[in-house]
Amino acid sequence: MRVAVVGTGYVGLVSGACFADFGHVVTCVDKDAGKIERLKKGEIPIFEPGLDQLVASNAREDRLFFTTDPRDAIKTADAVFIAVGTPSRRGDGHADLSYVYAAAAEIADLVEGFTVVVTKSTVPVGTGDEIERIIRERRPDADVAVVSNPEFLREGAAIADFKRPDRIVVGTDDARARAVMQELYRPLSLNETPLLVVNRRTSELIKYAGNAFLAMKITFINEMADLCEAVGADVQQVARGIGLDNRIGSKFLNAGPGYGGSCFPKDTLALVRTATEYGSPVRLIETTVAVNDARKKAMAERVVAACGGAVAGKTIAVLGLTFKPNTDDMRDAPSLDIIPALQKAGASVRAFDPEGMHEASKMLSDVTFTQSPYDCVSGADCVVIITEWDQFRALDLDRVKTLVKSPTIVDLRNVYRPAEMAAKGFQYASIGRG
Fold first, then answer.
1. Considering only the top CATH level, what class is 296-429?
2. Which residue in 84, 205, 309, 420 is deepest, having the highest Cβ count within 10 Å?
């Protein structure tokens, strides 16, 4: 099948490359000429393990193309995916749908023959209705079906998630559109991947409900971590004890400094706003948002406490800047709250991240970025682990101790064992292990 993907951000690029790898002919469209030229040269603008090889191999096989001109791509497409950004709108927290609606208008002007217009971007309930209205208004003669097909990709594992998903959700009542979507995802039928076909509004809500539930699960275990510290329990053992219950499951029960990234913060906020508009408030999600925001801000206080109550004039070494490992995504990362708070308290901050320093440099000021974790900790009064990159899990602790000014480590991801750190002579603070 012939596929056009409008938007070459994280979702659009991963989806386009994976559809091409399924054997479809895919053209990815973006208005950013610089980005398109880089992609044509095989340069990937985001860090996602395996994506560079996937793009290169499918481009080489003439199944994956990149362009700034959408005309031919959309005219010949069986399906056009809208995969543009939907950031939180300033002021009210709603998803900014201006890019989605602009893409819909552009598609309307160019479609020929029966075309399935698929919303891959994360959008509030009812967005598909508005996309359809825009297309019908601009092109009453257009033979289109507007479908919702939310993505469930984890940054750092997106290719595996696309090719081996738990489920595929398709929102449509149109039989022809359903047939097109089944054909697009036919390679996954070999794995017996469930394809859940629902109405469009249900599909849109599934995405938000799923992300909100996972965010709530993270926030729950973080609050349990605080309680563990108060009563002398171990949150990791609590998480294992409840996670072995099949009704609960073990995923997203890792205590830490709060969730961040491109999805959970904006999606929980957008769901709260949508629910409020419809007069059906979601109190649990409202609380989740508030607790998570407060938690990220409070993490700097833990560092200050570990340093004896003051960090003025001290050097803090931060290991990990991105919101999670195996990505360069800095959106709503806890480090963006923790580092400025430490600086405001008078600390000097040095930082190292395997992939995120370029993006972090655009968002943080007066931070010294280093070439390695050992450069980072050299001369530090305190080391703070914010992101659990693999290389931080296997630090040469003896070497670290010789480099730091003071053997103090604040581990916000529970990478190390308290007994091991005590044996090495470190003053060690972690999360929820009272």
1. alpha beta
2. 84
402 and 379 in contact (C-beta within 8 Å)? Answer: no
How many angstroms separate the CA atoms of 13 and 18, rounded? Answer: 9
173-228 tens-digit pLDDT: 999 999 999 999 999 988 889 999 999 999 999 999 999 999 999 999 999 999 99
CATH architecture entry for 208-289: Orthogonal Bundle (1.10)
Residues in the chain: 434
Strand bridging mode 195-198 / 382-385: unpaired
Identify residue 47 by its one-letter amino acid code: F
Annotated catalytic residues are: 263
Nearest Cα to Cα of residue 171 among 126, 209, 213: 126
Tell me the CA distances in angstroms from 255 to 94, 222, 367, 390, one per residue in order: 28, 5, 26, 17
Q: In the chain, which segments carry CATH 1.10.1040.10?
A: 208-289
Q: Where does CATH 3.40.50.720 sit in the chain?
A: 2-198, 296-429
Q: Which amino acid is at 396?
A: D
Look at residue 88 in the predicted model and tell me its pLDDT: 86
Residues 6+ apart with CB under 8 A from 423: none
Nearest to 329 by CA among 233, 235, 237, 259: 259
- The answer to whether the CB of 239 falls within 8 A of the CB of 255 is yes
Interstrand relation of 427-429 and 408-411 (parallel, antiparallel or unpaired) = parallel
Residues forming beta bridges with residue 170, ordered by sequence position: 197
Residue 389's CB is within 10 A of a number of other CB atoms, namely 23
Tell me whether strands 315-319 and 382-385 are parallel, antiparallel or unpaired: parallel
Cβ(409)–Cβ(373) under 8 Å? no
pLDDT at 90 over 90: no
DSSP string, 359-418: HHHHH--SEEE-SSHHHHHTT-SEEEE-S--HHHHT--HHHHHHH-SS-EEEETT--S-H
pLDDT of 327 strictly over 80: yes
Q: How many CA atoms lie within 13 A of 434 on its CB side?
A: 12
CATH 3.40.50.720 fits 2-198, yes or no: yes
